Automatic annotation (TrEMBL):
It comes from Rhizobium changzhiense. It comes from the Bacteria. The lineage of its organism: Bacteria, Pseudomonadati, Pseudomonadota, Alphaproteobacteria, Hyphomicrobiales. Pfam families: SIR2_2. This is SIR2 family protein.
């Protein structure tokens, strides 16, 4: 936490310790500066006061800043050694008018759990006592001052006051006498080494208190003695508390921190200010003291200040301060709710909010939402919480809505609907599957039928608006706030429910009633959500068919529930016709399109309605259903019309003829819009009359009307097709296959003209006609292409034809390879512009030519390269890597093709053409985009290029590999990720390799490939020591230190992979002789390089060492940290029946314990088998406490 722009960043853990009274300040000479001298000036002043000069030995110690040794040497050569002490005492006398401002602050900070001051200091002066005398009394200060060997034991009830660890000078004003001082090297040796009382005190102190050093430099004598003692103890005792040191960065934070970190101290550094360098420190300590003394006041002020900010305007220190202020303080979250401006604060504070249970978090959020019901950001934030399954939010929102309703009715409706949608969320798939099994039992509980309906039925969903939608200035409807819809999830889990007991007998009737009630309830909710109004019903459009149909595929929402209802009808009618009839009749009165469609579907069931009843109900219905729902209309006609009376049919036809002519007449429109009305009117009449005519003969007037429509609308002169019954029709997802019929039947000279016409068609399959024809008949397509000269007008056609070139000769159909040879000869006559436009596909053919046995004119490489150099390229983005571009660019393909051609020629003849090398050099040196792609291709095969020409590889390409620009970095990345070098090439390119590895930001296999250069070089140095290598073990180690964690993990991956390539019985020797020494040589020993990923890989490496497993485990254990994964993979040790654990039980237990010991929280199904094998192989280990604790990590299936 930072209190000043230049001040130190105090760790939150330190602040917590200060508040608990668990931290003690250890104060050095810098606290009393500039009133009293520091150690260096004290030594100088003592020499001056005694009139002595430093001897060469003393000067040497003085230069090394070992001032206690300087004074020790001086005391040894003086007649009266106490003269040194006396002179120092005079120099350190408290000024007549002492300034204790700094001491006041430290005393405010350094107190025990009941508020008593406790300061430990190596200073001899009594400025701390003067501070206590001013704030309390002289008598209090006298009692509080202890020194030397009289100091109280840390942790005891008497451990309080001012503790002078190195002694105290006399202070007559406070009636304090002088004690023995620790000043010279001999006295330091007595206190810390021979008698050791100071060392024991510090050890005990750091076991019970956090230590904060202030007023010291890392090289000061007290620090060296104190921290060396503590570091030795820290290796043996794990309960030592942290040690912090407050100091200056001296304008170089890294350099200032290093000496402290070397002593296992956590530096807390401030930046010196201009003028008073230490002002940032003491101001910060003063504010820290304010916090410690009145933490609630500080917390409240911080919450009010930071929470009022937008998160984008808050600094990281602001966020940390707010998180700390709210940490473990549930009582202050109400203040957050009152102050918070940005909903993102709740996401940032998610960890702190876990102090509440889910219900309390929901109430807290709802209270904040209610602070401004009309704030759109708050609403959309609530939407996110609902989407994430915040189940308790519904009840909390309803409570707030009851407590203080929004004044705006639209906002009130929006919040109520959101609360309702929250109550529907959070279904558990496991519960659904359990329900499915219960439904298959003979007895099905009524509650389970209700659960089935609720699961199949959708729910109201509220989502954020699409990003491109700008919020309106004024909210007038729900859609201005968010997107409301009726959606479902996991509805398919129970799609076969009707095949269970739930769909049989009385259950079917009850299930039908529950499903109907659920549907009507959802439709009413949809109406509330403005998805249904007087002019539109979006729910209806989401259900293509109320019965099972292919058009319902991939549809959710209301479709499964609607289909459940219609599927239940036949069974339910058989069981209880009267109940079902009453239910179906009720659907007609609900006023929703979907229930009306269900009612019409019910009319088609002859077991419910006789033909005349069904047709009469349809004819006399005065709603839009008659004209709106074609599928259901036709279904009634098909099922019932054949057996209806002539009178009933006559009434039906009369309505069609009379109302049909008036359709759309009430819709206003411009004169030019009138034709659509006539077309729509004719289609409505045609569909209904045609459906009737397919069952019964039409009356004469109706038939005349239908004939008239046929005459005027030739596209309607046909029978009904299924898609006519749907408002929208999906033909499903299918691949586009070009139509080639016109091209196949045409003459060769006509085909290109036809291809041009097809390309302009609206039909996507027509547009793909030429490319499909090229694949079907490449020879016929070539004949068409050769009918015209090669110019820019036919370049698009040639480009598509050239795409069908096979990769290998055996892949080509009969005559295709010959056709491509013919095309190459013909294209050689192309003009410059057309040839350049075809550079990309021709470069691919040039690259594949050797494999296909094609003969390419000698001039093509140069012509294509000239064309490629005109390629402007594309902008680089983070999504593209260099080699990905190389293989997709003309320049890269040409370079790769040339390298392949050179290799083929050298294998055949043993020679390399100077002309080809010259071409390669031209490509490498080209400053164009094509040149950069060619260099990428050459970098990928740098090892091969080096065998061709060390000059080309080292000098020409090398100048680009050396560059510090983006291209240089990309080339080095390709070099290390795609090459395997011989020893000679490694020597030549060592600098590029090492630099490329250090720069690499790759992961997984690419990182392993980069790291393999280091592993290979060092492995080789152990396999064949006389063979010189370009990368030494020292260079490999340095590069491993400088590289990313992914590179280091990749090195371990490679070592494990290569070791596993050895036969099982040879792995032990391979580890002992080669891989073990290689690991020791290249792996950094610093703890900072350990990680969970490293531990996983080292675990796997140990398991690959065969018979050397015990020795490997012993050497690798220090590099394994406790696994932090939730799910732990121990398969490397568990495989083959835990063979290694059986052969080497003690080593296996050591390895598993190192990775999975407490406080590991992960679980694994592998560990039980390993532990069983260990116990069986060595029964004595079965009672090992480690085995008992490790079994807690086991998961059994």
């Amino acid at each position: 936490m930072r209190f000043h722009q230049l001040g130190p960043d105090f760790p939150e853990e330190l602040i917590d310790d200060l508040l608990e009274g668990d931290a003690v300040f250890l104060c050095g000479a810098g606290v009393s500066f500039p009133q009293l001298p520091g150690f260096e000036r004290l030594v100088t002043n003592v020499y001056a006061r005694l009139g002595e000069e430093r001897t060469p030995a003393e000067e040497h110690a003085f230069t090394a800043k070992r001032y206690e040794e300087v004074l020790g040497a001086l005391a040894r050569r003086l007649v009266r050694s106490n003269d040194v002490i006396d002179a120092a005492a005079i120099e350190l006398q408290v000024p007549a008018v002492a300034d204790t401002t700094h001491h006041d602050v430290l005393i405010r900070l350094s107190r025990d759990s009941i508020g008593r001051p406790i300061i430990v200091t190596t200073n001899f002066d009594t400025l701390f006592e003067r501070s206590l005398a001013a704030s309390h009394s002289s008598a209090f200060a006298e009692r509080a001052s202890v020194a030397g060997q009289d100091i109280p034991a840390p942790g005891s009830s008497t451990f309080t006051g001012i503790v002078h660890l190195h002694g105290r000078l006399a202070d007559t004003e406070l009636n304090l006498s002088q004690t023995d001082l620790v000043l010279t090297s001999a006295q330091y040796g007595e206190a810390y080494l021979r008698a050791g009382w100071a060392a024991r005190f510090l050890f005990d102190l750091t076991r019970c208190r956090t230590l904060v050093l202030v007023g010291y430099g890392a090289g000061d004598a007290p620090v060296r003695y104190i921290l060396n003692v503590l570091e030795g103890d820290r290796e043996r005792f794990s309960d030592l508390r942290r040690v912090y040191a407050i100091g200056s960065t001296d304008r170089d934070e890294q350099a200032a921190a290093a000496p402290w970190q070397a002593l296992a101290v956590e530096p807390v550094l401030f930046q010196p200010a201009d003028g008073d360098a230490y002002e940032p420190l003491w101001t910060s300590l003063g504010h820290l003291a304010d916090l410690v003394e009145e933490p609630d006041k500080w917390r409240q002020a911080t919450i009010e200040r930071v929470a009022a900010l937008e998160t984008s305007d808050a600094t990281e220190h602001d966020k940390r301060a707010l998180k700390w202020a709210l940490g473990q303080r549930a009582d202050l979250f109400e203040l957050l709710v009152q102050s918070c401006a940005d909903p993102e604060w709740f996401a940032i504070l998610s960890v702190e909010m876990k102090a509440f249970d889910a219900r309390a978090r929901a109430w807290l959020l709802a209270h904040w939402f209610a602070g401004n019901w009309t704030d759109r950001r708050r609403f959309l934030s609530a939407v996110k919480y609902v989407e994430n399954g915040h189940l308790d939010l519904s009840q909390a929102l309803f409570r707030e809505l009851d407590h203080r309703r929004p004044e705006n009715p639209i906002w009130e409706k929006a919040w109520q609907l959101l609360a309702e949608s929250a109550s529907e969320r959070g279904r558990d798939s496991l519960v659904d599957f359990q329900l499915k099994h219960r439904l298959d039992r003979p007895f099905v509980a009524d509650t389970d039928l209700g659960r089935l309906v609720n699961t199949i039925g959708p729910h109201l969903t509220v989502e954020e608006p699409f990003r491109y939608e700008e919020p309106p200035a004024e909210i007038t409807e729900l859609s201005d706030i968010a997107r409301f819809s009726i959606e479902g999830d996991r509805q398919e889990v129970l799609r076969d429910a009707l095949d269970t007991s739930a769909g049989r007998g009385d259950n079917a009737v009850r299930l039908l009633r529950l499903a109907s009630e659920r549907l009507v309830s959802l439709l009413r909710t949809a109406r509330d959500a403005e998805l249904i109004d007087l002019t539109r019903d979006t729910t209806d459009w989401t259900v293509p068919s109320v019965v099972r149909h292919e058009q319902n595929r991939h549809r959710r929402g209301l479709v499964p529930l609607t289909v459940l209802i219609t599927s239940l009808l036949p069974t339910a009618i058989e069981v209880d016709r009267e109940t079902v009839l009453h239910l179906v009749s009720g659907w007609a009165t609900e006023g929703f399109h979907l229930t009306t469609r269900l009612w019409m579907h019910g009319l088609s069931h002859a077991a419910l309605f006789n033909p005349d009843e069904a047709i009469h109900a349809l004819t006399t219905d005065r709603t839009e259903a008659f004209w709106s729902f074609a599928q259901e209309f036709v279904s009634i006609i098909s099922a019932q019309l054949a057996n209806a009376s002539l009178e009933t049919v006559s009434h039906l036809v009369e309505r069609i003829l009379m109302e049909g002519l008036q359709r759309y007449s009430d819709i206003p429109g411009r004169h030019e819009d009138l034709d659509w009305k006539s077309r729509a009117r004719d289609r409505d009449i045609w569909l209904r009359l045609t459906a009737i005519s397919e069952v019964k003969d039409l009356p004469q007037a109706a038939q005349a009307r239908l004939d008239d429509i046929h005459a005027r609308r030739d596209y309607l002169a046909r029978q009904l097709e299924e898609q006519d019954l749907f408002r929208t029709w999906s033909s499903g997802v299918r691949s586009v296959r070009g139509k080639t019929a016109q091209l196949v039947s045409a003459q060769a000279t006509e085909r290109l003209s036809i291809a041009d016409r097809l390309e302009e068609s609206r039909d996507i399959e027509d547009q793909a006609g030429w490319s499909e024809y090229c694949r079907e008949d490449p020879i016929g397509a070539l004949a068409a292409l050769k009918s015209r000269a090669v110019d820019m007008t036919v370049v698009p056609r040639w480009s598509e034809w050239l795409q069908v070139v096979p990769h290998r000769r055996q892949d080509g159909l009969d005559g295709v390879i010959e056709a491509f040879q013919d095309a190459i000869d013909y294209l050689d006559t192309a003009n410059v512009e057309a040839f350049a436009a075809l550079a990309a596909p021709l470069s691919s053919i040039l690259e594949r030519a050797p494999a296909l046995g094609l003969t390419i004119p000698d001039s093509w490489r140069d012509r294509l390269w000239l064309a490629a150099e005109s390629d402007p390229g594309v902008e680089w983005t983070d999504d593209w890597e260099l080699y990905d571009r190389v293989i997709n660019s003309p320049g890269g393909r040409l370079a790769e093709g040339l390298l392949q051609a050179i290799n083929d020629k050298r294998e055949r003849t043993g020679a390399v053409s100077e002309a080809d090398l010259s071409r390669l050099r031209q490509m490498i040196l080209s400053r164009t985009y094509a040149g950069s792609m060619a260099r990428g291709a050459c970098a990928r095969d740098l090892g091969f290029l080096y065998t061709l020409s060390p000059r080309l590889a080292g000098d020409d390409l090398g100048q680009f590999l050396t560059d510090d620009n983006d291209e240089g970095q990309r080339l080095r990345a390709v070099l290390v990720e795609h090459n395997s070098f011989t020893a000679e090439a490694e020597i030549a390119f060592a600098d590029f390799i090492l630099r490329g590895i250090t720069e690499s930001r790759q992961k997984n296999i690419s990182a392993a490939n980069a790291a393999s250069h280091l592993v290979r070089a060092v492995l080789a140095s152990f396999v064949n020591p006389p063979q010189p290598r370009g990368i030494s073990p020292q260079q490999a180690l340095r590069t491993m230190r400088q590289s990313t964690g992914d590179i280091r993990v990749g090195a371990l991956t490679i070592m494990t992979s290569w070791l596993q390539e050895y036969p099982e019985d040879e792995r032990g020797h391979a580890w002992t002789d080669v891989f073990g020494p290689t690991f020791d040589a290249i792996w950094p020993r610093d703890r900072t390089f350990l990680s969970n990923d490293v531990s996983r890989e080292i675990f796997g490496l140990a398991a690959a060492t065969g018979s050397a497993f015990p020795a490997a485990v012993s050497s690798l254990l220090p590099y394994i940290t406790i696994f932090s994964d939730d799910w732990i993979n121990l398969h490397d040790l568990e495989r083959d029946g835990a063979r290694l654990a059986t052969l080497h039980p003690e080593a296996a237990l050591d390895l598993v314990w190192a990775a999975c010991r407490p406080p590991c929280k992960g679980r694994t199904s592998d560990i039980a088998g390993i532990l069983d094998a260990i116990a069986e192989a060595q029964p004595a280990l079965a009672v090992d406490r480690r085995v008992h604790k490790l079994r807690l990590r086991a998961v059994s299936y």
